[in-house]
Amino acid sequence: MSIAQEVVDRMMVKCARRCCICRRFRPTKLQVHHIVERSNGGSDDEDNLIVVCFTCHSDVHTKVPFARRFSTAELRGHRDALVLLVSNGSLPTIDTDDTDEVIARIVALAKVSNRSDTSLSSEAQEILFKAASQEDGMQGYVQPIDHDGGFSLLAGSVEIRIPDRRAQARYRAGFNRLLQSGLIEHIRDELFEVTDDGYLAADELASTVGQGIEQSETG
Asked: What CATH class is the domain 5-88?
């Protein structure tokens, strides 16, 4: 038995179609989650429901050793805090759900960054970030493709087309650097996958370059 549609509608309106955990505007990528699962006696009452995006929904269910899981009280707190922000009109009026736009901006800033404490080229950073950032069944996968026109890459579900031979050499070197650094690993045939260290590096990249985005917008 599914949650009544009128209850789902009220939850979506109260949260303005934002995820209660990450607070991002995710209009078509949301789920209404039971805070206390039905199997544990949870009801379909609004007090036992929270709106979360697909990514955060997965995090809520993930059991990672030594990591603190979301508690019932914390989930309700996140929900109530977001509902209050929505009702007070305190959320930004300009928002985007375009992941490709965010990736493009981060990659662009990474390419002009002259940070001396990184050993990854801008091409390696682009491959890693695009692969780790996809929110579908191809998340984390990297596949180099050799063809008559030269060389290209699949990073998650995004194809990186590289028509110029000089650029192809840089992307090959970036791919090999990720492999040598243990940020991606070979699975089978021509398929590779981002490792745990790779995801941590992608998060660090997003955090570091994201600071550049904020500075450029406020400067």
From this structure: mainly alpha
Task: Supply the CATH classification number for the domain 99-218.
Answer: 1.10.10
Name the DSSP class of 131: H
Per-domain boundaries in the chain: 5-88, 99-218
Residue 108: both structure tokens together: 């662009």
Q: How many CB atoms lie within 10 A of CB 87?
A: 10
Q: Rounded to whole angstroms, how far apart are CA atoms 127 and 1?
A: 42
Question: 136: helix, coil or strand?
Answer: coil
**Residue 104 CB contacts under 8 Å (≥ 6 apart), including other chains:** none
With the CA atoms of 138, 144, 150 and 152 taken in that order, what torsion angle do they form, in degrees rounded to the nearest 10?
A: 30
pTM of the model: 0.47
- Per-residue pLDDT tens for 146-190? 776 678 888 887 888 887 888 889 899 999 999 998 999 998 888
Distant-in-sequence, close-in-space partners of 193: CB < 8 Å, separation ≥ 6:
140, 141, 142, 184, 185, 187
13-42 per-position pLDDT tens digit: 999 999 999 888 888 888 899 999 888 899
The share of the chain scoring above pLDDT 70, in percent, equals 77
Q: Is the four-CA dihedral 162, 107, 194, 124 of positive or negative sign?
A: positive
